[in-house]
Amino acid sequence: MTTLAHWTEAAAAVTPRNKMLIDGKWVDSASGKTFETVNPATGQPITSVAEGEDGDIDAAVSSARAAFDDGRWSKLTPRDRGQTLVKLAGLIEENGEELQLLETLDVGKPIRYSRRVDVAQAVHTYSWYGEAADKLYDDISPTGPNALGLITREPIGVVGSVTPWNFPMMINSWKLAPALVAGNSVVLKPAEQSPLSALRVAELALEAGIPPGVLNVVPGYGETAGRALGVHPDVDGITFTGSTEVGKLFLQYAGQSNMKRVSAETGGKTPNIIFADAPDLEFAIGAVGFSIFWNTGEMCIAGSRLLVERSVYDRVVEEVGELSKSWMPGDPLDPATKAGPIVDQAQLARVLHYVERGQEQGARLVSGGNQTLSESGGYYVEPTVFADVSNNMDIARDEIFGPVLSIIPFDTEQEAVAIANETRYGLSAAVWTSNLGRAHRMSAALKAGTVWINNFDTSDITAPFGGYKESGFGGKDKSLLALDKYTNVKTTWINLGRGGV
After folding, report:
1. What gap in Å lies between CA 501 and CA 489, rounded to an integer?
2. Fewer CB within 10 Å, N- or C-terminus of the chain?
3. Per-residue pLDDT reduced to its tens digit, 282-315
4. Where does the pLDDT of residue 2 fall: very low under 50, low under 70, confident under 90, or very high at 90 and above?
5. According to the model, what pLDDT value does residue 359 have?
6. How far apart are alpha carbons 148 and 415 in whole angstroms?
7. How many Å apart are CA 295 and CA 112, to the nearest integer?
8. How far apart are CA 334 and CA 104, in angstroms?
9. What is the mean pLDDT of the chain?
10. CA–CA separation, 141 vs 250, rounded Å?
11. Which of 51, 53, 203, 265 does the annotation list as catalytic?
């Protein structure tokens, strides 16, 4: 493992890409505007990035449309597209140290995780979809002898991808890899807090052989660049990960323009449910720390509601309170750090607001709740545990996107299900029990796209990811099912005539 001194020296020497990539060229914004991307560990700017607006999105979409229509990518064989993605995966691996540093500087992710998780997952995702490219078959419908029904998939055209700041490289790969392998062209609008790794990966995509115009990157703000993508009449589909409120805006944008396809993953309020018969209660309690304090709680699947059977409730509250102290944040460039800063000042203020609301509404503060390391200039907050929470409190209902845990007691299986499902979200859930029947009953009853039994957030690229209710719509990320979002299904019905031998 490299040292803090190594990463500090590397950070001082890094030169991020800070222009937008349109039609294979680095360009300034049409307006000349830039915005600062800030290191959340210090509060200091890293670089000024070109700020895309309507005209820049229009140029990027025009480039993507031309690339799609002339077939420079869309008409390649699946094998050729797939091999290019595999090459991109290799280039990301080769440049992994630079990319992990960009991720850590841009969003405050601990350096120990930015390579192990973000870079590694991006490498695996591009290579997995690349390897799958020429192993996907179309279908023939079960017709009678006088007809042939061909069912084929075609790329939808130009995809607009709007992505979040919590796992920039990983979630970008979930969107870009299936969209590209299907033959689409893409305009990516990364979150304004985290454009740096997206720009570098796009540069590597050109090096890998993805033709100019097929992947364009336009940094900017959601209300300008994001909206411009959403209403653009020549964008065929939008894939979005972010807040529920913004996801609803993209539905409006689609209705106001060309009824483009919209798929969105829009947050969660995961119930993490511990029964007294958990097969290993100590392991389950340890997993609570990972479920809410890892990545500083900035995860859509964060186990922010911990439901505990009353007979073990006091023990769990006490041990989780102690456990939280092992997740105190520190310098993300230090390989020993497990938790870094909140991504920016606005998000820090949001987290602290909810801590205040929890106390005002009567929850018992067990640990944390304060801003910390303020002398660094960064946006740090202590891991925070509330007990005796009721499900109607703000901290139990709203997605906070920070290291704030609400512990809620329950007495029966039916009560646990009722509490877990009493939310507008339905992204994920976890259940800890030794009772196989209960595990099946709970999985069937919980309104969530993913249910973990006796584990938390263990999965891989082969498993689809997405939610119920206001956690998402329009298709899944990951797995071969993700290709549904980026392809149109065409039926060709051939009349074979009558008669014959």
Report:
1. 33
2. C
3. 999 999 999 999 999 999 999 999 999 999 999 9
4. confident
5. 98
6. 53
7. 11
8. 11
9. 97
10. 35
11. 265
- Contacts by residues 368-373 (CB-CB < 8 Å, ≥ 24 positions apart): 368/324, 368/403, 372/328, 372/329, 373/329, 373/330, 373/341
Helix, coil or strand: residue 351: helix
For residue 294 the two structure tokens come to 């890892």
Q: Per-residue pLDDT for 67 more than 80?
A: yes
Q: Which domains does the chain have, with CATH numbers?
A: 4-266 (3.40.605.10), 271-453 (3.40.309.10)
As given in the structure block, the two tokens for residue 98 are 């630079």
Among the options 192, 203, 298, 300, which is catalytic? Answer: 300
Is residue 415 part of the annotated active site? The answer reads no
| pLDDT tens-place string over residues 415-432 | 999 999 999 999 999 999
**Per-residue pLDDT tens over the stretch 443-491:** 999 999 999 999 999 999 999 999 999 999 989 999 999 999 999 999 9
Cβ within 8 Å of residue 146, ≥6 positions away? 495, 496, 497, 498
Burial 47-69 (b: 16+ CB within 10 A, else e): bebbbbbbebbbbbbbbbbebbe
Is the separation of the CB atoms in 113 and 295 below 8 Å?
A: yes
Q: What's the pLDDT score for residue 32?
A: 97
Predicted structure pTM score: 0.96
Taking alpha carbons only, the member of 300, 50, 32, 59 closest to residue 196 is 50
Q: Where are the beta strands (DSSP E) in 334-403?
A: 364-367, 371-372, 380-381, 384-387
C-beta atoms surrounding 221 within 10 Å: 15
Tokens of 491: 């039926």
Number of DSSP helices (H) and strands (E) in the chain, helices first:
16, 24
CA gap 237, 303 in Å, rounded: 31
The dihedral over CA atoms of 215, 217, 223, 227, expressed in degrees to the nearest 10, equals: -20
Burial of 277 (0-12, 13-18, 19+ CB in 10 A): middle
Cβ–Cβ < 8 Å for 200, 95:
yes
Cα 289 to Cα 296, 335, 383, 455, distances in angstroms: 10, 19, 9, 12
Count of alpha carbons within 13 angstroms of residue 55, beta-carbon side: 9
Write out the two tokens for 2.
């490299």
The Cα-based distances of 325 to 151, 177, 292 in angstroms read: 56, 38, 13
Please determine, for residue 269, whether its predicted confidence score (pLDDT) is greater than 60: yes
User: 158: which residues sit within 8 A by CB, 6+ positions away?
Assistant: 61, 64, 65, 68, 184, 185, 186, 187, 234, 235, 236, 237
CA distance 354 to 362: 12
Amino acid residing at 209 = G
Q: Are 150 and 175 a contacting pair, CB within 8 Å?
A: no
Query: Residue 265 has which token pair?
Result: 């993953």
CA distance 448 to 123: 28
Q: How far apart are CA 43 and CA 403, in angstroms?
A: 19
Task: Please report, as a single letter, which amino acid is at residue 436.
Answer: L
DSSP state of 70: H
154 is catalytic: no
